[in-house]
Specification:
The chain has seven helices and no strands. By secondary structure, it is mainly alpha-helical. The longest helix is centred in the first third of the chain and has 24 residues. About 55% of the residues lie in helices and about 0% in strands. α4 packs antiparallel against α6, α4 packs parallel to α7 and α6 runs antiparallel to α7.
Length: about 190
């Protein structure tokens, strides 16, 4: 045992010394570079002359369309309209009306063409009368220059009067409002 224990000790001592030698020697990939000597002599910089005959690049002539210009362009200001007050609907009538489907609400709810609110009839009639007065007050030059828009206003007013005579006060008021808005644009 003595011979084998001695051999194990030697073997362990050799491995330990080999490991310490490799570990303490450092990384062999890191090489030391010698620093460059400093430059002591001044270096002259040469001026490079610019060439005198540079080629000229021709700019191609591009014909652009004329710039569009808006005539009588003014920002439109929307006036806030007062919300008409409606009478509360009794519960019996509210439960009798069917609930609108999503398709109906997308295009607007249909109203029966029955008896309209007298106040709505009066407002529609006043709006039609006021628009007709404004239309008649337009100068002949303005009416001739904006002939198509004047024609649209007259058609809206005629349709509004027909709707009012048939009992559709809401439709008459809507048509008269359209005529009023077109007149507002005409008078600008």
């Amino acid at each position: 045992m003595n011979g084998q224990g001695n051999m194990t000790r030697r073997w362990t001592g050799a491995m330990l010394s080999l490991g310490l030698t490799v570990g303490l020697s450092g990384c062999r990939h890191r090489t030391q570079l010698a620093p460059l000597p400093p430059v002591m002599a001044p270096v002259t910089l040469d001026d490079i002359p610019e060439p005198t005959d540079l080629p000229m690049v021709a700019v191609p002539q591009i014909k652009l369309p004329p710039v569009p210009v808006a005539s009588n362009a003014q920002p439109k200001r929307e006036k806030k309209k007062p919300v008409p007050k409606t009478a509360p609907v009794p519960e019996q009538v509210a439960s009798a009306t069917p609930t609108p489907t999503p398709e109906e609400t997308a295009i607007g709810a249909l109203t029966p063409g029955g008896e309209a609110n007298p106040q709505t009839k009066q407002e529609a009639a006043e709006l039609i009368t006021a628009s007709e007065k404004r239309l008649n007050a337009l100068s002949a030059q303005k009416a001739e220059a904006e002939k198509s828009q004047v024609s649209k206003v007259k058609n809206f007013l005629k349709d509004a009067e027909d709707a009012l005579k048939s009992g559709d006060a809401d439709g008459a008021k809507t048509l008269a409002t359209k005529a009023k808005l077109l007149l507002d644009d005409l008078e600008k």
